[in-house]
Write a structure and sequence with these properties.
The structure holds 2 protein chains of 2 kinds. Chain A is of the alpha+beta class. In chain B, strand 1 and strand 2 form a beta hairpin. Classes of the chains: A alpha+beta, B alpha+beta. Chains A and B meet through helix 2 and helix 3 of A and helix 1, strand 2 and strand 3 of B. Chain B: This is Dynein light chain roadblock-type 2.
């Protein structure tokens, strides 16, 4: 429909002035919405519409005027001369120069600049910054492999009544067999019907031992003869020495007579390097070290009594718990005692007094392991009470290095045969610690929990890769260490020897200082009234002792109570019974381990010897 | 740039002076561009054969050519 408005005007009225007048709004047209049309459409819900709210920009290209570049060289000619100076005339230039040189500004500037310059020149003279460093060193292949060890095999005691694995010995050729000595070291607590057998295991077969050795009394130590791999030497719990030949079977080939043997369990037996390969020696807590020839075990060839007062009195002798012998130093041997003293002896001395060369004291308890460093025999490792200590033969008053006091008692230790700075220790809480002195000296490089019961003994195979540890329930675990711990590192020998030397020097300096201080004190005391001092000293001593005892027990009990309180909060753990290795000997000094030590509380144990 | 005092021959001096003056100016303006509060105090150019050290100032320039210690 069209909307049309017709405008009509007469011809005669063209050109006339328009006369506008208001009138009312007239509705021209009204189109109502037609709802029927809606049916033609479908409502769309929702409706997608794009909306953008952003600054509206426009793009426009423009071409700038070209920038002309040109390469050209510059020839410097002297210039910049002031107008009145003719550069060509020498006289004038010289005069100008002299004038400038007299200028104050110039002088001060030159002085200042000169000092800066001098500094840099001197620097250059001192150091050549383009020097080639590290020319000679080859690229180091640093293996960042963390030290690790894993259990390969576990050999369990086939007997029903479990005994402690007290000693391990690797087969000398090929290291395919392991001899383990089993016994119960608890003093008179060995259960009835406990078997006396010790076994030789083949590493491939952990289910059944290859050979059983049947001694008359349980074996405390067992060693393969390094020269003849069929012969084994064992030290018995009753003090006898027994010898086996594996070709002949499991029964004892030779046995020493009881009258001439030790009176206490034999804790250390070592084969000697001799032409016949039949000599050995043994040590026991009865204070004697005996030399034997296995062809004639009826009596020892030689007996030495470990009496440090050098009188050869058996009553004063110290019980020997560990024995050390290095075939490169055939006349010397060392004995670790129950009292915490290491005695170094000379076999070839003429009189018994001279046999004992010197003593090293430093441990608070029995020394369970004693071994010289295979690379540096002057330094030896002792393991006892809660620490492991490294000693040097030159430093007699104290050890040169020691570990901190651990929470559990250390039971055995050994050097690694391939790395001079690595040694292993076992503890009564079943952990094996591997120490690497080159890497870290205050903590073990690796600490592994091998089993839940206490570990008693440790033996490293000659290649340095395999370690066997024996536990309280007779389980022997075979571990393999990572190659970083069993291969000789570059420079390690030098580093290790320098570590030992440095520590020895330090100890010597301290020793000298202590000696000086003591001499000074002696001088002071001698000047005063001697008699009175002595008496007072005696009284004070008794009082002091009583007081010290009281305080000591107080501290221990409060510590125990605190531990109990903590244990109550956590899950209850089974109380480990310590085998009381120290007490099993019925030793001289009556070293009875009180029960509270089993909790592993670090405390100082003072031995009061009934003198 | 007029060389006031020199231990080398004239032409070398003039050449060094001219070139290093320009370089110093450039270095100074660079330092100032990065931080207007900053200023160039010393310039060292180490080459295979020598080390050239320039100590600039408002009016003067001190240039030292040193052989490396080898």
């Amino acid at each position: 429909m069209e909307i049309v408005y017709v405008y009509v005007k007469k011809r005669s009225e063209f050109g006339k002035q328009c006369n506008f007048s208001d009138r009312q709004a007239e509705l021209s047209i009204d189109i109502a919405p037609n709802p029927e049309l809606a049916a033609l459409y479908v409502e769309r819900n929702p409706v997608d519409t794009g909306i953008q709210c952003s600054a509206s920009m426009s793009e426009h290209e423009a071409n700038t005027e070209r920038f002309e570049m040109e390469n050209c060289g510059v020839n410097h000619v002297e210039g910049g001369w002031p107008k009145d100076v003719n550069p060509l005339e020498l006289e004038q230039t010289i005069r100008f120069r002299k004038k400038v040189e007299k200028d104050e500004n110039y002088i001060s500037t030159i002085v200042q600049l000169g000092s800066i310059m001098e500094h840099c020149i001197k620097q250059n003279n001192a150091i050549d910054i383009y020097e080639e460093y590290f020319n000679d060193e080859d690229d180091v292949e640093v293996t960042e492999e963390a030290p690790s060890a894993k259990t390969i095999n576990v050999f369990r005691d086939p007997q029903e009544i479990k005994r402690t694995a007290t000693h391990l010995s690797w087969h000398p050729d090929g290291n395919k067999k392991l001899a383990v000595a089993y016994s119960c070291l608890n003093f008179q607590r060995a259960p009835m019907g406990m078997s006396h057998d010790s076994y030789i295991w083949d590493l491939e077969n952990p289910n059944q031992p290859e050979l059983a050795l049947k001694p008359p009394s349980p074996l405390v130590t067992l060693e393969y003869n390094p020269k003849d791999s069929h012969v084994l030497l064992g030290g018995c719990y009753n003090g006898q020495i027994a010898c086996w030949d594996t070709r002949k079977g499991s029964l004892v080939a030779e046995l020493s007579t009881i009258e001439f043997s030790h009176q206490d369990p034999v804790y250390g037996t070592i084969w000697l390097q001799s032409k016949t390969g039949t000599e050995c020696f043994s040590a026991s807590t009865d204070g004697q070290v005996m030399w034997w020839d296995i062809r004639k075990l009826s009596e020892p060839t030689e007996v030495v009594i470990m009496d440090i007062s050098r009188k050869g009195q058996l009553e004063n002798a110290l019980g020997a718990i560990s024995l050390e012998f290095e075939s490169t130093l055939p006349t010397k041997f060392m004995v670790g005692t129950e009292q915490g003293i290491v005695i170094s002896c000379n076999r070839k001395a003429k009189t018994p007094a001279e046999k004992i060369v010197c003593t090293f004291s430093g441990h608070h308890g029995p020394i369970y392991a004693l071994q010289r460093n295979p690379f540096y025999p002057k330094n030896f490792l002792t393991v006892g009470d809660w620490t492991a200590r490294i000693w040097s033969e030159d430093s007699r008053e104290s050890s040169i290095m020691w570990t901190r006091y651990h929470m559990a008692y250390l039971t055995d230790g050994a050097w690694s045969p391939v790395r001079p700075a690595v040694f292993f220790t076992t503890k009564m809480d079943g952990t094996l610690d591997i120490w690497d002195l080159v890497f870290k000296q205050c903590d073990p490089a690796l600490s592994l929990k091998v089993c839940d019961d206490a570990l008693f003994c440790l033996r490293v195979q000659d290649t340095g890769c395999l370690i066997a540890c024996g536990s309280q329930l007779g389980t022997t675990t075979l571990l393999e260490v990572s190659s970083s711990l069993s291969t000789l590192q570059r420079n390690e020998k030098n580093i290790a020897s320098s570590i030992f030397e440095r520590e020895t020097r330090r100890e010597k300096i301290l020793e000298a200082r202590h000696r000086e201080m003591r001499l000074k004190e002696k001088g002071k005391v001698e000047g005063e009234d001697d008699g009175q001092k002595e008496e007072e000293g005696a009284l004070d001593l008794n009082e002091l002792v009583a007081k010290a005892e009281e305080e000591f027990f107080e501290i221990v009990f409060s510590e125990l109570r605190r531990k109990d309180a903590e244990a109550m909060k956590k899950k209850p753990k089974s109380v480990r019974t310590s085998a009381g290795v120290g007490g099993g000997s019925g030793g001289r000094e009556g070293a009875m381990w009180p029960e509270f030590l089993e909790a592993g509380a670090p405390c100082l144990v003072v031995f009061f010897s009934p003198s | 740039m007029i060389p006031i005092r020199t231990t080398l021959d004239n032409s070398t001096t003039v050449q060094y002076a001219g070139l290093l003056h320009q370089l110093t100016m450039k270095a100074k303006s660079t330092v100032r561009d990065i931080d207007p509060q900053n200023d160039l105090t010393f310039l060292r150019i180490r080459s295979k054969k020598h080390e050239i050290m320039v100590a600039p100032d408002k009016e003067y320039l001190l240039i030292v050519i040193q052989n490396p210690c080898e």
